């Protein structure tokens, strides 16, 4: 029989699941931030953009302006370019966290000649409590180089 104490033998195998439970406990609805309804339309050269991905990422204001605060809101645009954000209930339109956000639009299934990149901020927006927040997102026209890259990426996806 091994002379290793029982705690040392089983300590590692017990501690991993316990750590997981503690971390998962911080992700519950009890830690949610207040949200407000957010919707709008994504347009490219005056035309609605279907299938784009819209992200509202809350940020801290003041001296810590680059810090992320709260959970990101997300939506896909419909056939008319409209979106309704969801944060805690995907697809349910529960809105975005109240406060300042950096707004990004990703390509998703969208087919247009505008610049979209979920890594680049399109604008900043403030989501206000107890109101319907509406933001039209006007995409900048893509450069010739960006258009060629987008076409190449679509072609690779089709393969």
Question: Which short descriptors sum up this protein?
Answer:
elongated, 159 residues, four-stranded mixed beta sheet, 29% strand, Immunoglobulin-like, alpha+beta
Structure description:
This protein has 159 residues and is of the alpha+beta class. 22% of the residues lie in helices and 29% in strands. The strands form three sheets. Strands 2, 3, 6 and 10 form a four-stranded mixed sheet that branches. A four-stranded antiparallel sheet has the order 5-4-8-9, with no helix packed on it. The model is unreliable at 6-29 (pLDDT under 50). It has helices at residues 6-25, 144-158; strands spanning 35-36, 38-44, 47-48, 53-58, 73-76, 82-84, 96-97, 99-106, 123-127, 133-139. The protein has a single domain, classed as Immunoglobulin-like (Sandwich), CATH 2.60.40. The protein has two helices and ten strands. Keywords: Signal. Residues 1-24 form the signal peptide.
Distance between the termini: 59 Å
Q: State the domain count.
A: 1
- Radius of gyration, Cα only, in angstroms? 21 Å
**Which term fits the overall shape?**
elongated
Report helical residue fraction: 10-25%
Number of helices: 2
Largest sheet: 4 strands, mixed
Return residue spans where pLDDT drops below 50 for at least 5 consecutive residues: 6-29
What is the CATH architecture term?
Sandwich
Beta strand %: 25-35%
* DSSP strand count: 10
User: Helix/strand/pairing class, anyone?
Assistant: alpha+beta
Mean pLDDT over all positions:
79
CATH class value: Mainly Beta
Order of helices and strands: HEEEEEEEEEEH
Instruction: Specify the CATH homologous superfamily.
Output: Carboxypeptidase-like, regulatory domain
CATH third-level topology: Immunoglobulin-like
């Amino acid at each position: 029989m091994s002379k290793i104490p029982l705690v040392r033998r089983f300590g590692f195998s017990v501690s991993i699941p316990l750590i997981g439970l503690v971390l998962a406990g911080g992700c519950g609805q009890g830690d949610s931030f207040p949200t407000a309804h957010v919707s709008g339309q994504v347009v490219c050269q005056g035309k609605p953009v279907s299938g784009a991905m819209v992200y509202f990422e809350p940020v801290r204001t003041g001296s810590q302006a680059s810090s992320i605060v709260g959970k990101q809101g997300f939506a896909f645009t419909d056939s008319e370019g409209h979106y309704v954000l969801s944060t805690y209930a995907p697809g349910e339109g529960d809105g975005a966290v109240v406060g300042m956000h950096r707004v990004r639009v990703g390509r998703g299934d969208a087919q247009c000649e505008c610049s979209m990149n979920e890594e680049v901020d399109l604008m900043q927006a403030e989501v206000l409590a107890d109101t319907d927040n509406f933001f039209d997102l006007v995409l900048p026209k893509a450069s010739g180089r960006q258009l060629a890259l987008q076409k190449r990426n679509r072609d690779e996806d089709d393969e």
